[in-house]
Amino acid sequence: MKRQTLSHDPAVQFSYLSEKKKSLIYSETLEVLQYTGAEIHHEQARNLLREQGCSVRDKRVYIPSQLVKRCLQTVPPVTTVHRWDRKGRVHIEPYRSYFGPGPTCPYFVDPYTRERRRYLRQDAAHVARVCDSLPEIDFVMSLGSISDVPDGLEEVYEFAELVQESSKPVIAWCYSRKHCRYIHEIASAVAGGKEELRHRPIYFFYNEPLSPLMCDYNAADKLLYCAQHGIPQIFAPANTSGATVPATHAAHLVVTLAESLIGVVLSQIRQPGSCIIIGGTQSVLDMRRMIFTYGAPELSVLSLALTELADYLELPVFVAGGCSDAKITDTQSAMESTFSLHSALLSGANLVHDVGFLESGMTGSIFQLVLANEVLGMGRRIIRGFSVDDRTLGLEEINNVGPGGSYHGTDFTRKMSREHWKPELMERRDYEAWKSDGAKGMRSRIRERTLKILEEPSRRKDISSAVQDRIQEVLDKAETG
Questions:
Q1: Pairing status of strand 363-364 against strand 107-109
Q2: Interior CA angle at 352 toward 351 and 357, to 5°?
Q3: Rounded Cα distance, 100 and 444, in Å
Q4: Whole-model pTM?
C-alpha cells in the first residue's frame, strides 16, 4: 500500500459511505471505463493508451481495469506545493484540508461600491491580497475571469496578478498548452528558475474533462504538458446531476470517478509518479430554475462521498465548498457556505475551492472570503479536538482550588485559556459596548475588515524588479502570439 504515516492525527473523522458502497461504486466505474469507454480527442493520448493495451476505435478508448489499477499505484501519496517566500506550504496528504477561492466568475462585488459589475484585472490583485492576509485561506484563485485584457489571455494575466500579490500557492488554469507554457514561465521567474520550480513547485494547475465521459484535445494536451514538466495538477470534472451525469448520486459518482481516472491513467502513462488530484465541483440541477446550485445540500453530499472514494483509492481530492446561490453576503450565503465548509472539514477533503462564490458561481465576492475565514477558524477548532493527558486533566489544579473555589485568575487558567479560539468578526462584547461602537452588524464588520486588508502594503515589493520585468516580458510575448 502507498499510504504513509500521517504527519498529523485528526481528532474528528467523518464517515459517509460504507466500505461496501465504495467498493460497488469503484467496481462499476471500472466497468464503465472498460466497456463503455471514453472519447479522447487527442491523437498522442490515444496512442499512449493503445500502447498500454487499450482498445481504440476512432476516438473511443476502452481502458482495461488492470491498467487503471496499475496507474493508481504510482500516484504519489504526498505532494507539497510551496509559498514562494518559503514561509509555508500546502502539504497534500490524507485528512489534511486546505481552502481557497475558485476561478472564472464573470461578475464581481466591488469592495468599495458594493455593486455587482464585470470582473477586472485589478480585482485579481485585490483577491490575492485578501487571500494573502487571511490565515485560514491557504491557496489563491481569482474569483473571476478578467474582462479588460486581450481576449484569450485572461488566465495568463490572472496568474501574473495572483502570484505577485500573494506568496501563497496559486491554482492556475488556462485554455491551451501554449498558455500553460506562459504560466510556467511566469512561475519559473518567481520561483528562481525551472529546475527550482520542479524541485519546489509554487502552483497547481487545474484542468477539466468534458462530461459525460469525454476528454477534449486541450484538456488532454494540458494534462500531458503538466505531467511532463512536473507540475502538480488537478483533473476534475464539474458535473450536474440530471444534466451531464445521471440524476442519482450513485450513478453521478460513477461517471465523475470514471472521468477523473482518465486523467490518472494518462498522467501516469506519460510520467509515472507525477502528481494528479481528482474530484471536482459536483451538484444538482435545480429543475425549477435550471441552474447548477452551489448552495444545495447535495453539493456537500456529493463532495463527502467523492472525498471518501478518493481516499479509498488513495488519491488526493479537490472539491467545492464555501459557496452560495445567494446574490449578496447575507444570512443565506452564511448558512450555505458554512454547511459546505464544515462538511469538507469533517471529511478531510484535501483542496476545497470556490470559497467566495455567490449567485451560483456567476459572482465572486471577497466579502464572502472574509466571512469564510471566520467560519474556517471555528470549524478547524472543532475538528482539532482536545488532548487528554496529565497536563490537560489538571488534577493538581482541581485539588488546589477545591470545592466552592474559583479558577478565574489562576496560573493554570491564564496559560490554558491562550489555546481558546479567538474570533475576529463575531461580536462578544456586552450590549452597551457594542452599541457605543456603532451597533454594527456582521455585514458592516466584514466590509471594514476587507477594506482594512486592501489598505495593507502590496506583496509586489517583495519581488525583485528583475523578476517583475521578466513577468512583463512573458505577458508582452503572450500578447504578440
A1: parallel
A2: 145
A3: 23
A4: 0.95
